[in-house]
Amino acid sequence: MELRHLRYFAAVAETCHFGQAAAQLHIAQPALSQAIRQLESELDVTLFTRTTRQVSLTPAGEFLRTEAARVLAAVDDSVRGVRRIGAGRHGLVRLGLTGTASFSHLPGIARVVKRELPEVALEIHADLLTPAQCERLQSGALDLGVLRPPATGEGLTLRTLEVEPLALAIPVDHRLAVEPVVALADLRTEPFVAYSARDSAVNEAVLRSCREAGFVPRREHEAPSTAVLLALVAAGLGVAVVPASVRALPLEGVIFRDLLDAGSVELSLAYRTDDDNPVVDAVIEVLEAADLFTAPRLEVPRS
């Protein structure tokens, strides 16, 4: 059964008039009559009772009218869905985030996507460090990643979301708690709590800043996540130098202070350079239109 024959039948069933149905379909009446006869022959059933005065549906025709309406509606819905997907307006995007990006940047990203692409769903993968995100991006397990450069591996494009300063997290009863701003050099004798990840971009930034201030930080405790890191600080086990966005995670027993000459860390959106998924392209376009990026794209070339 051809789909066009089903549409022809639905038009005649609606009007019970071959001339009116032919006009609606923009075809000649003889061609429409022939198509209906072909459909009846294929189904081996009479669909219409025809007289010189009227056309009416047979019981088989009544049944087919209901089924044809259902089938044609499903086909039309499918066509619209396929076109939305092809235009990047419908689908699923898997988004990875590192550390506090879930608090500092996910709300803004999700808000833009919901407003501009209401039929695009975000599948969130939080608390992923940069190396893990890069691996998942390259394997196709993630579509987008909010991470801290440098990216590991190859074939990724990075767009800068923010360059944020480093801040100091200390226990509320720390000697420096009375200071609104602290010099990094004042921390040379302090025990540090750092991230346990070997390739932590924050650890590298803190080490670089401390060396520029004339000392190497004394790392006495390590934490697998920002939440654990702050808990160790609250317990008085050390101080921590963290991205300023960590302030979005208030924890009783911890206060934050601005740091002089402490450098900064970058947060970027990463995606596969050769990704041809129109939904991913659409999400990147709406984020760009919302001015969420602060610098041109940077590609990590393939070797």
UniProtKB/TrEMBL annotation:
<dbReference type="InterPro" id="IPR036390">
    <property type="entry name" value="WH_DNA-bd_sf"/>
</dbReference>
<dbReference type="GO" id="GO:0003677">
    <property type="term" value="F:DNA binding"/>
</dbReference>
<keyword id="KW-0804">Transcription</keyword>
<comment type="similarity">
    <text>Belongs to the LysR transcriptional regulatory family.</text>
</comment>
<dbReference type="Pfam" id="PF03466">
    <property type="entry name" value="LysR_substrate"/>
</dbReference>
<keyword id="KW-0805">Transcription regulation</keyword>
<dbReference type="GO" id="GO:0032993">
    <property type="term" value="C:protein-DNA complex"/>
</dbReference>
<dbReference type="InterPro" id="IPR036388">
    <property type="entry name" value="WH-like_DNA-bd_sf"/>
</dbReference>
<dbReference type="InterPro" id="IPR005119">
    <property type="entry name" value="LysR_subst-bd"/>
</dbReference>
<dbReference type="InterPro" id="IPR000847">
    <property type="entry name" value="LysR_HTH_N"/>
</dbReference>
<feature type="domain" description="HTH lysR-type">
    <location>
        <begin position="1"/>
        <end position="58"/>
    </location>
</feature>
<protein>
    <submittedName>
        <fullName>DNA-binding transcriptional LysR family regulator</fullName>
    </submittedName>
</protein>
<keyword id="KW-0238">DNA-binding</keyword>
<dbReference type="Pfam" id="PF00126">
    <property type="entry name" value="HTH_1"/>
</dbReference>
<dbReference type="GO" id="GO:0003700">
    <property type="term" value="F:DNA-binding transcription factor activity"/>
</dbReference>
